[in-house]
């Protein structure tokens, strides 16, 4: 079972219809454009709603339009800090041209998670390992697919991976709040721990001799993917039990890493479903 830590949940809550809360006006109609020190700023309905419902989040403040609040599901505590704003004002709080959908939430980042907290050895729940995938849009999209296919967790390196952010959370569409994200110092060592826990580690590479379907085992699996262009580093390849490819057309050189991850997760889920059906 994942553990986000033991931070208190002061100020957390669920979004409301109808909304109650302490409301104010944005001073001079402008925001700083930056989150407070140590805070994360999230935007967009799915990302904000999921964060409000996450008991492991500590929330500081919600800036919102009336329409944005009306789109949410749930209920906020009566004293939840809300500041009403116009769409243009919210645009100054987030990245340029970010689709905030009338909602901007400032909250504390999630607590660290450790591998031994989440590795459960369930063959139906793969581990996703990303080697130096740095684009927050890609990492967020991979999180969304991993959550959709009931992955155990996603593992990245502390460095050479994007931080928790509004852009990543928006791309994850709520998955950031429900999918355990393990950030490690040494990815090779993490792969050793994953193997010790009984997982078969498959690295995805277009030069793999076997297809993913051929390489997939019956038991727990870890899917390892590298950045577009460079792919997996040599040391990470050396820590994989097999290297496999997706059988794409020769007309295309490669797939976006988030697309490849979605296909690999589907192949893993289908393998397990088919196996369970045959066993039954």
UniProtKB/TrEMBL annotation:
Its protein name is: 23S rRNA (Guanosine2251-2'-O)-methyltransferase
Give the UniProt keywords, A-Z. Answer: Methyltransferase, Transferase
Region entry Disordered: which residue ranges? 1-36
Composition bias of kind Basic residues appears in 17-28
Keyword Methyltransferase listed: yes
Q: Where is the composition biased (Basic and acidic residues)?
A: 1-15
Checking Pfam families in the record gives: SpoU_methylase, SpoU_sub_bind
Which lineage?
Bacteria, Pseudomonadati, Pseudomonadota, Alphaproteobacteria, Sphingomonadales
* Domain (RNA 2-O ribose methyltransferase substrate binding): residue spans on this chain: 41-113
């Amino acid at each position: 079972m994942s553990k986000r830590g033991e931070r208190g949940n002061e100020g957390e809550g669920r979004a409301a219809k109808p909304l109650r809360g302490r409301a104010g006006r944005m001073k001079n109609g402008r925001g700083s454009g930056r989150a407070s020190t140590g805070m994360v700023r999230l935007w967009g309905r799915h990302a904000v709603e999921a964060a409000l419902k996450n008991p492991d989040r500590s929330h500081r403040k919600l800036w919102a339009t009336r329409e944005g609040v009306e789109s949410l599901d749930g209920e906020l505590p009566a004293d939840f800090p809300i500041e009403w704003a116009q769409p243009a004002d919210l645009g100054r709080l987030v990245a340029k041209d970010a689709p905030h959908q009338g909602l901007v939430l400032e909250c504390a980042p999630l607590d660290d998670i450790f591998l031994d907290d989440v590795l459960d050895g369930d063959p139906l729940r793969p581990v996703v390992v990303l080697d130096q995938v740095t684009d927050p849009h890609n990492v967020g999209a991979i999180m969304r697919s991993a959550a959709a296919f009931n992955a155990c967790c996603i593992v990245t390196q502390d460095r050479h991976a994007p931080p928790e952010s509004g852009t990543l959370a928006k791309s994850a569409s709520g998955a950031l709040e429900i999918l355990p994200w393990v950030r490690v110092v040494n990815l090779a060592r993490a792969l050793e721990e994953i193997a010790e826990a009984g997982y078969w580690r498959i690295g995805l590479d277009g030069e793999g001799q076997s297809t993913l379907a051929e390489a997939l085992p019956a038991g727990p699996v870890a899917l390892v993917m590298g950045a577009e262009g460079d792919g997996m580093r040599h040391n990470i390849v050396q820590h994989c039990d097999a290297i496999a490819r997706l059988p794409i057309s020769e007309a295309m050189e490669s797939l976006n890493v988030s697309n490849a991850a979605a296909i690999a997760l589907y192949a893993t889920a289908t393998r397990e479903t088919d196996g369970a059906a045959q066993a039954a």
